[in-house]
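Students often ask what a 'structure token' actually looks like in practice. Rather than answer in the abstract, let us consider Cytochrome C oxidase subunit I, a protein of 439 residues. Its sequence is given first.
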Amino acid sequence: MSGIPGDIDASSGPPMTVPLRHFVVGLAFLVAGVAVGAVDGRAGHLAQVHLLLAGWVCLTIMGAMTQFVPVWGGVALYSRRLAVVQLPLAALGFAGLAAGFLGGWPLLLPVAGTLALAGAWVFAYNVGRTLLGVDVDVTAAHFGWALVFFLLVTAAGFGLALDRAVGILSAAGLSRGSLLLAHATLAVFGVVLTTVAGALAQLAPMFTQAEDRRSEESLQRAETVAYPLGVLALAGGRLLGNELLARAGGVVVVAGLAVVAVVLARRLAGARVDWTPMLTRYAVAAVSLLAWAALTAVHWWRDPLSYGGLFGRPSLVLLVGGVGFVVLGTLYHVVPFIVWVHRYSDRLGFEAVPMIDDLYDGRVAAADGTALVLAYALLLAAQRVALGRPLVVAAGAVALVGVALFAGNLVAVLVEHGPRSLPSLLLGRGGPSADAEDP
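Now compare that with the structural description of the same chain:
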């Protein structure tokens, strides 16, 4: 069973509906992104990337940070009003970007990009102001850098969207290809993986209860300082076409993520609790990140500027294995945890209440985990055979089943145990403004 930390004060966070709304909308983006990939294949690549990385992963990050920065930091969220506003702006923006790519409507892109930028910047300002009152540790430092990367990546994305519609970059003497490389680098290695590293530094020791080791603490402190600078160097080198700068940044990024993977793997190996869906998915992520780091180090040393090596080699191992399974595992704890705190925590000791891991169906969790690992394996196999298209199609179908089971399992937690109906949760009692009042 997942532990319930005794020093967490959930009252300092936003209303339950705020993070859960982000997670539910993010699940919709996940299902849509996998469906687009299964149906359109490479034709829907840009739309799928924005549905999954921006829509699912980034909305999940936004909801999680909005909840847990004030809760774990022991400070009040700076503004509940801003926390409510950020989701519709960002979600409409991300959906509009995906629609623009899928439908071939370039004029829609800068409109959607404006909404996405506004949502991301509102979020960064709100959580950033909240972080100012938090004691700096490994997690807080990573989250602070992730907010900086949110600002940079959305600004670069807006420039790319505007260029696709009216062609401004060439007139300004800028290379679209270089800006695209920098944008993607900041998105994945900046926003997403910096957040992942910070979250794992908090979640892995908390939910494995593994013994602390001084050597791991030293490695984490070094990674905390070096990794964000490596991301800036890698993105800057790609933007400027400077191979030496990009190579140096790439070395630091690979080393930083290898540290994250080694520490996570050691924590999992020394776990003193029963394994949960969260930990099993973290295990897939740890193995994937280690394999990716070993393979990418050589490739980036030779050529850190090529589009083919944008996310290292193979990128599938990083994006699906390293990022996807961390988010899947985290959601299997975070969603039930928030519901449990608001529904059952005040009853503990007075009546029989379910534990956090009792809120979801363990059989469904096992089934969706099996399906998603199988889909991952099929995609890896497809890269090794000459005629991999049938394997990709099969992987898409299996993945769609897996994410449907995953999303259904978490939505069932909200329906069966949540204090509100699902429509009320999404809209808020009397509308989203009901949750927007600042204390």
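One point worth highlighting: The two ends are 34 Å apart (CA to CA). Ask yourself how you might have guessed this from the sequence alone, and why that guess would often be unreliable.
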